[in-house]
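Our example copied in:
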Amino acid sequence: MASRIKEIDWLKLIKVDRDTFLKWFFLHEEEVISDDIKVKFYSLKCENNELNIEGFINYLYCEVEKYVFDEKEIKELIEDGYSPLEKALSYFGDIDPLTDGRYGELILYLFVESVLQAPMIVHKISQTYNNNDQVKGADGIFIGNINDKATLLIGESKMRNNFNLCVGDVMESLGRFISDSGTVERELDVAKKHLSRNLHNLERGDLDFIYQSLRVKQKEFKEYSICYPAFLMYKEKKIGKIIDEDLTEIENEVLKLIKSVKSKRANYIKKSLPDVLDTTLEFFMMPVKDVSSFREMCYQIFHNGKKYERKE
């Protein structure tokens, strides 16, 4: 049994294959605002002179099962004669994809587990965990070791067609946690009631230790550094222009574009930050041609080819 949170072997709980996930991206550019605040830009590889949105969403589709359920739940579903994947997909219900936040939460999970190597500790979507309120609750709770420090990660995700609006929405969400310790306490009060049973793969006694560490008044909680990872998908208008011009080297053109705007984008984030003390922020930026079409395709692939029908 670990005597400190940082001694727990968090890596054995990681379910996302880092190499497989990162192979979807040809671009990884980072802007460092400070030692504790980093902005990472990713862009999907191209296929047939288009960013490979459909292929990436099909990959998301295949990862849903592990995102929604822990290992024991998957085993129990199989024993009861259910398909874990079909059951998992049922949690992505008949909701307008232009407003549904669950696709962004799924991508946030993939980035945090693969890049930061911090496992998700609550399978939020399958629990009664702010299920009817996608606005107020965190979009993911993770624990890992970052820079050799035990770190509690409270994530947010936003997908908007306007960069400034996307950043503003993320900052509003993060600001609730950063400025109000009571918000963190309420989040953890709910989270510790729904801990993933994957945690039972750790050494005996570690689960009680983890549970204790999620009580903010206890000394175990004070071992944590706090990190707020955020996934932002936003429309970068010039990507559409590059694609529409049908250039032969789209990836190189997109790379040049991101390199030319990344400092400007990172500076906008820096100016938008709430006051931050002893807090790490990791921003995963994914510029695309059009966020709405990405959302619509997510719905279609997750619903066996069906398009979402809006009532007039």
User: Anything to note?
Assistant: The two ends are 59 Å apart (CA to CA). Residues 250-272 form the longest helix (23 residues). The CA atoms of residues 8 and 306 lie 44 Å apart. Strands lie at 25-34, 37-44, 46-47, 50-51, 140-146, 149-160, 225-235, 279-288.
